[in-house]
Specification:
Layout (H helix, E strand, L loop, with lengths): L12 H18 L2 H35 L5 H30 L34 H21 L2 H5 L2 H39 L1 H35 L3 H18 L6 H10 L4 H14 L2 H17 L6 H14 L9 H6 L13 H40 L2
Length: about 400
């Protein structure tokens, strides 16, 4: 009896992301405006839907993640925030010293006339559909803490059977399953289209390439800082968690590429959760740490902000005063904990405090600073996302050995 089997050919997420980037650049460079605007319209619509889902995702996963921590939920929260702050602070300090050593050797005021309006030439979608989130990221985090910690406390006092029948626990458990289904069936499959639209507009406008031609050395140094910082974190985390750091780096590639395209730590949560699972992170820790760190742990953004600020000061002939820079580093280390996980979120949080060093709103310095930051923001976001998984390994090790016992 002859039997036939149907073989399905599935392209992995990494190849699809790379294809989306290449196709986006090609379309933006050579395709008619109508086609490019069509792609950008679809990408924009998906982006609106994604921004609507993100707070729900955080509420669902962080709440159920904390609720499942019937042992030491408060301790785990404190450890996560403490490690995130230390990581961000160290990143800012490293960025300051490297920038202070390298930037004066090649930056001078002649570059400021070579960069124009950062939004000039970008295409707009044919139409947009407003899908305002039910609530923003910060209310989602606060609600997740309230519900998660309360449910965890209730469950720790109940029997195993009674704990599973807790109404709120069952609701958030099923809610997280619903959001997980949305991620699996809609968000992840459509991410390449979203990323492709981003690169279409970059290619059409040429903004990123213009800035790259002007300040490419700065951008390369920032990317190198991200890479070295991540490498050291992976090595330390692998040693603490007794895992192969190179295997962890390999597992991180899909999330890293997704972050490059979306420029959003929050938007990369579903991919990063899958990476954490492959790294062997326990479900209760990864479902809490990954969504939570996506909004508070941004060492890559900290490196980018400090390095970009230093570069702009040197370009405008204003060597940074250490007495002014250090307060900014300490302040931003705290503010970055609440920076929105969206493109440019960290620099927008930092802007009001940069008047301390002479970078004022609506100035040429501010315009060039934003342009420089946005040009390399994808790499900062990818560093943020990757470092979240590094932190989750260390936290899971502490949780299994010190808290869960």
């Amino acid at each position: 009896m002859n039997t036939t089997s149907k073989k399905t050919f599935n392209i992995g997420l990494v190849p699809r992301l790379l294809i989306a980037i290449v196709v986006g650049i090609l379309l933006g460079s050579f395709a008619p405006e109508f086609i490019n605007r069509t792609v950008i319209t679809v990408s924009t619509l998906f982006g609106s839907f994604l921004m609507f889902v993100i707070p729900l995702m955080i509420l669902a996963f962080v709440t159920i993640g904390i609720a499942n921590l019937t042992h030491g939920a408060g301790k785990l929260l404190g450890i996560t925030m403490g490690m995130s702050y230390i990581s961000i602070l160290i990143a800012g300090i490293v960025a300051y010293f490297v920038s202070l050593s390298l930037f004066p050797t090649f930056l001078d005021p002649t570059v400021i006339g070579l960069v124009g309006d950062i939004e000039a030439g970008m295409l707009t979608p044919f139409f947009t559909v407003a899908i305002p989130p039910i609530f923003s990221v910060m209310p989602a985090i606060v609600l997740a803490f309230i519900f998660g910690l309360s449910i965890s406390a209730i469950r720790s006092k109940e029997s195993a059977e009674g704990a599973e029948n807790n109404v709120l626990y069952r609701f958030f458990n099923e809610f997280s399953q619903v959001i997980g289904l949305v991620l699996k069936k809609a968000i992840i499959p459509l991410l390449p289209i979203f990323i492709g639209g981003t690169f279409v507009n970059l290619a059409v406008s040429g903004v990123a390439f213009t800035i790259l031609n002007v300040l490419w050395k700065v951008i390369l140094i920032i990317i190198a800082l991200h890479t070295v910082y991540l490498f050291i974190l992976f090595m330390i985390s692998g040693f603490i968690g007794k895992r192969n750091p190179f295997t962890m780096m390999k597992n991180q590639i899909p999330a890293y590429l997704t972050a490059l395209g979306t420029q959003s730590s929050a938007a990369t949560i579903p991919i990063n959760l899958a990476v954490a699972e492959r790294n062997g992170i326990s479900k209760e820790v990864r479902n809490f740490v990954i969504p939570f760190c996506a909004t508070i742990h941004m060492p890559g953004s900290m490196i980018s902000v400090i390095a970009c600020v230093m570069a702009i000061l040197f370009v405008f002939g204003m060597p940074p005063d250490a007495a002014l820079i250090w307060p900014i580093i300490l302040t931003l280390s705290v503010l970055t904990l609440v920076a929105p996980g969206a493109p440019g979120g960290a620099i927008m949080v930092a802007l009001p405090f940069l008047t301390i060093v002479g970078i004022y709103p609506d100035s040429a310095m501010m315009s060039l600073l934003i342009a420089l930051y946005i040009a390399q923001d994808s790499f900062g976001t990818a560093c943020n996302v990757s470092s979240d998984n590094v932190v989750s390994v260390a936290i899971d090790t502490i949780y299994q050995k010190e808290i869960k016992q």
